[in-house]
Amino acid sequence: MSEKDHKVSRRQFLTYTLTGVGGFMAAGMIMPMARFALDPALKAGAESDSVYVCEVSELTEEPQKFPIVFNQVDAWYESEVSRDAYIYLDGDEIVALSPVCTHLGCTVTYGHNDKPDGFRCPCHFGLFEKDGTNVPGTPPQRPLDVYEVTVEDGKVYLGQINQRT
Length: 165
Ligand code: FES
What we know:
- The longest helix is centred in the first third of the chain and has 33 residues, at 10-42.
- The model has no long low-confidence stretch (mean pLDDT 88).
- Helix content is 20%, strand content 38%.
- It has one helix and nine strands, in the order H-E-E-E-E-E-E-E-E-E.
- 17% of the residues are buried.
- It folds into two domains: 3-42; 46-162, Rieske Iron-sulfur Protein (3-layer Sandwich), CATH 2.102.10.
- The protein is an alpha+beta fold.
- The strands form three sheets. A three-stranded antiparallel sheet has the order 1-9-8, with no helix packed on it. A three-stranded antiparallel sheet has the order 2-3-4, with no helix packed on it. Strands 5-6-7 form a three-stranded antiparallel sheet, with no helix packed on it.
- Bound molecules: FE2/S2 (inorganic) cluster.
- FE2/S2 (inorganic) cluster is lined by residues 101, 103-106, 121, 123-124, 126, 139-140.
């Protein structure tokens, strides 16, 4: 092979150099955009955390309404969200019900005159038993949702809401 075969022409040199520099600059612009787009999806388990609600000693056999305040991350927007839960003791078990009516989403209340030992929805007069079971013949077609409950050192924590059928 002669030395002439290895010579890089001025045109080739400029092509290689500009391609390399251009690629480097393009990566510098694309990487932050890719990170911005993917970052929330790569953060694991932020919304699966349990939230402290009350002490076990505060609970009775009658459902009581407790506020739940937690941080919600919605893609890039983080906000403080407040919800309620009706919590009561069923023997040794702690039951935490969502007050959102399973008919069309109004808020139920416990102990109304129409249903002193259960929940009543003001919107279409849906009724639920104390354990959240829907009363047949009223609009809701399924029971109230339940929160996952964990107890640590006498403190009650609520996790995600689960649907019952
Ligand atoms: S929203 Fe509760 S009964 Fe319709």
